[in-house]
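Researcher: Please predict.
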Amino acid sequence: MTRLLAYGIGGCLVFGVIVGANALFENTRPSMPIPIITTVKGDLVATERSGRTVKFSDLKGKVVVCAYLYTVCPHGCAAITAQMQQLLKRFGDRADFQLLSVAIHPDRDTPALLSSYAEAVGAQGDSPWWFVTGEQKGLWDFMTKELHLEEAKPIPEDERINPMDHYEHDLRMVLIDRQGRVRRYYSVFHPQPEIAAVMCERLPQDVQRLLEDPEL
């Protein structure tokens, strides 16, 4: 992610018909193949908001949507959370679907804080939505080396626009299939609202396709 993405406009919050988005969407029909970008080979061992230890490998056989989370993010995490909420409403009753939010700042975002945050955004304890924290290097390594997101970086204090602006991190959401393969990235927070709108349309469509066709 570039700093430009971090300071852009939350396109998922834009309402109404966007002509540019419609034009782009004509070229992204659901019938188009969903690419296979990479296969997750390593594992993530982390602490879920409940305090229990969980592993990414436990999600094998499920369609997973994953993204970084910073509970007091001054930039684009709100747009990601909003999209996660929509996915939970639409697919949350399926046993083969899972959301995964990974703490970018685990020293701050402890299980107790993540639990409060999760309840505030409507994710109950039995929801298929993990909020995980743990050792920062392990979390970051998984997101970078396995999911191929851009490397997170600390922001020097004298360069912070906001006091909470501790880290520059990738704001894309990641779609992972039942076989643990990364299928696509979604810039639901983008400086160009029409692109963000397309990403917000495409993500649930791709999730639906993978859920309906396990062989896809």
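Model: DSSP finds six helices and ten strands in the chain.
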